[in-house]
Amino acid sequence: MTQPSPPPDIRPARSVAELLAASPLFDAPVHPSHALDFLGREGHHLFLAYADGEPVGFISGVETTHPDKGPEMLLYELGVAPAHRRLGIGRALIEALAEVARERGCRGMWVGVEPGNRAALAAYRSAGAVNEGRFAMLGWELE
């Protein structure tokens, strides 16, 4: 009989040092000035998940408001270290961000995800998300 995994330790990120320590979880190395800017902006949220004192996952969200919709939470990015996937860490991070969204009066939370990213889709669905099938994501490189 296998022991269930202990619940992840989820905490809001408060310092650049924390984000630098979690840098391997991001798509690219954390840039200190960008991290400081993100942490200092109202409506920007980032949670870290820890296992045995080490960062093993993160989620970031950005509040946005539109005149005809009111406040919403954009789940900007979710990342969990490969060795820690399928243990409920992604779901716990999503739930932490959703709780902040509720506390801040957001009417909903949404995320764009590649249709072939089965791991992300499974994590989002396990936390209660449904495919609304309403948009295609297009982008511009501005640099």
TrEMBL record:
Q: Does the keyword Acyltransferase apply?
A: yes
Q: Which InterPro entries match?
A: Acyl_CoA_acyltransferase, Bact_Acetyltransf, GNAT_dom
What keyword terms does UniProt attach to this protein?
Acyltransferase, Transferase
Record-linked SUPFAM superfamilies: Acyl-CoA N-acyltransferases (Nat)
The keyword Transferase appears for this protein:
yes
| Sequence ranges assigned to domain N-acetyltransferase in this UniProt record | 8-143
**Alphabetical list of CDD domains matching this protein:** NAT_SF
Q: Which Gene Ontology MF annotations are present? A: acyltransferase activity, transferring groups other than amino-acyl groups
* Protein's name according to its UniProt entry: GNAT family N-acetyltransferase
Organism, per UniProt? Streptomyces odorifer
